[in-house]
Structures are given as C-alpha cells and as structure tokens.
Amino acid sequence: MSKVLTVIRKEYIERVHSKAFLIGTLLGPLFMGALVIGPSLLADATGDQARTVAVVDRTGRVVGPLETALAEREDSYVTLTELDCASGEAACLEDLKAMVLAEEADAGLVIPADFFANPEATFYNTAVGAVVLRDDALGPALNQVLQDERFRRENLDPALRAKLFARTGWNTLKLTADAESAQNAEVGIIGGFMMVMIIYIMVLVYGQQNLTVVIEEKTSRMVEVLLASLRPEQLMLGKVLGIGLAALTQVAVWTVAGAAVSAQGLVVAGAEISLSLFGPWFWLNFFVFFLLGYFLYASLYAGIGAMCNSVQDSQQFSVVLTMGMVVPILLMTVVIKAPDQPLATILSLVPFFSPILMFMRISVSNPPLWQVVTSWVLLAGTIWLANKVAGQLFRAGILLYGATPTWGSLAKALRG
C-alpha cells in the first residue's frame, strides 16, 4: 500500500505544481462564468443595439402610437423614421427600399391604408436576423396599437384593456415530504448546468490525463523502472487516484471561489444565483457523481493508454469514451423538459450517462431516492468492471512497444 501511496503522491504533486494546473485553477471560474453568463450578456448587448426602421404609414395614424408603444415596452432602442410620401406612394416605397439596401435603415415597415380593418403589414429587410427585430419589438408594439385603436372605436374604457390582457403571476413552491419552500426554476436549471459542465470538463480533462501520462511513461521506458517495484495494478491505481486527487483539489477551489462570488450577488439571465440556495443533497450528489464519473472514465483511459504507443494511436479508442460524456450533454434537454418521465429516468440510470443526466434531474426535479441510489450502485458496479477490463489491458500492454494497437488487439488482450 505504501508503494501505491508513493505513486499517488508523485502524480498529485506533479499536477498541482504544474503551470497548467495553476492557470486552470485561476482561469477555470472565469471560463465557466463566460460560458454561462456570456450568452445572456451577448443577448442583452445585441438586443439593446440601436435599430432604425424606415416606415411608410399609409393610415397616417400609426407611427406616433407605435413609438409610444415601443417606449412603454422598453424597446426604445428602435427608432422609427417616417418617410414623406408627398411625391406618391410608389416613389415613397422605392425610397424605403433604397434606404434599407443602402443600410441607412436596418429594416423597412409599410402600414397599409386599411390596416385597422385588415391588420397586415409588410416588413423589408436584407438579413434573416432582422426578423428578430420584427418579432420581438415591432410585432408586439404594433399589436398594442391595433388593440388600442379598436378599443377607442368601440368607445371602451382604456382601463378595460389592462384588465383583459392581464397576465398571471406565479408563486412557485417546491414540495418535499417535510416542508415547502420557494422555488426559482431558472436558478435550478442554471446552477445545475454550471455544475454539470464542471463534471463534464473535469472528467474528460483529467480522465484523458491518465491516458497521456501512461503513454509518455511507456514511450520513455520510465514505466519499466516503476514496474521493478510495483505490480501493474498498483501502478494504474496510484495514477488514477493521484490525478483524481488533483482534480478534486481544483474543483474544491472552484467551489469555494463560486461561493465567495455568489455571496456578493451573482445575477444570470435575470435570476440571482447563490450557492447557498442549493442544499446538502445537491452538493453530496455533485461530488459523488464527479468522483464516480472520474473513476469510471479514468480507469478506461489508463487501460487504453497502456495499449498504445502514442497519443495518435489512442484517438480511435478514446473518441468512443469521449462520446460517453458528449451524448448525455446532447440529451440534457430531454431531462430538463420532462425530468420524471420514463425516458429521462432510463437514460439517467445508464452508468456512462448518470454523472450528467441523473445529476441534472436532481438539479431540476426531485427524483425518488431509490433511483438516485440505484444510479450510484450501477455506477460503482460499472467502475468495478471497468477496473477489471482496464487492469487486464494495463497488464497486457504496458510493456508492449512498436505494434500499432487495433480493436482486434484490444479484444485479444481482454481474452488473454
């Protein structure tokens, strides 16, 4: 056991003393923040960018109310430029098209003379992206103008409009067997997504480090010196545990940094994120699935590394393992939309998917305890099998040099 501890200490110290570890530890939270917060910031910046719309108003009564409606909806970034059609409607329309083509206006809007009786408008643009301007700003504001005019024509009280189009406010409470508590769905989804991405990145990065380290020591013949005093299984275990301890250290630093930042107030997509909102059950499952996911993939990466003579040789095998983490990322929308449906339940119990999908279910829902525990047990059992497979590959391949590995040679090593 002391020999295994020596390997663990060696691998751990090499990792935490490396520049890559220090840079990753410092820049990791910034990268994750940019990954989660960046899209919403870019969306806000894009949404607030000034837009000019050239307007031909054949009713003569839409532009003013439309500007008022845009201001009330806080879409003041849209500026309307009404064209003077004294020279004729045909010439006016050509002027509008010329402005859009010359990029003097971001879009063009033509309001027909019978708009209030037949509410159809024509929208001119040069890029598909301008449709967002139509649907998010001009469309709702124009609908409001139409409704106000129809209320006026019917001599109805303007206050009636507010009553008819009032929206429901929601007070969402999460029920547990013991109590009920306020719930913010956005916080659960965003927080769960942030932690899932940490699991995904760390498991792949540190799992693949086992592969590259084994290949480097094999090609440098350092492994021959190590195996003079260690069994192959001990060497593999020491590397997996040592590198995993370095990964756990980095995650712990990130978690503390995240708690410190959220304590000062962190708002993402309009939702305030605080790590204190996630209870002990959330954090227990985060570390359990992180560790189990790491040990599952790290063992297999180490076994593949022992069979290969270069990183290039390993690509055909490692890409299969990588897909085991990529596929559940692609399936996360299934879990978020219907976390308690049979499909989400079955997918989250697949051991290679559990670190991502079961943890996401825990973030957005309250899956039964037996399902969570079952995923732990299935993962632990799969890790045991993976270690046997990886150990056999490690023993068969660690001292083999020269031959390019194939799927057939891997199968032969497992049979042997």
Q: Short description, anyone?
A:
By secondary structure, this protein is of the alpha/beta class.
Roughly what is the average pLDDT, rounded to an integer?
A: 79
What's the β-strand tally? 8
Q: What characteristic shape results from the CA principal axes?
A: elongated
Radius of gyration: 30 Å
Run of helices and strands: HHEHEHEEHHEEHHHEEHHHHHHH
Q: CA-to-CA gap between the ends?
A: 27 Å
Count of DSSP helices? 16
Trace the largest sheet across and list its strands. Answer: 2-1-3-4
Number of domains: 2
Name the beta content range.
5-15%
- Helix content bin: 55-70%
Largest sheet: 4 strands, mixed
Question: Which segments are poorly predicted (pLDDT under 50) over 5 or more consecutive residues?
Answer: none
Q: Which structural class do you get from the secondary structure elements?
A: alpha/beta
Strand-helix topology:
Blueprint: H1 2-16, H2 19-47, E1 51-57, H3 63-72, E2 78-82, H4 89-101, E3 107-111, E4 122-124, H5 130-153, H6 158-164, E5 173-175, E6 180-182, H7 185-219, H8 222-226, H9 232-263, E7 266-268, E8 271-273, H10 280-307, H11 311-330, H12 332-337, H13 342-349, H14 354-364, H15 369-397, H16 407-415
Parallel strand pairs: 1-2, 1-3
Antiparallel strand pairs: 3-4, 5-6, 7-8
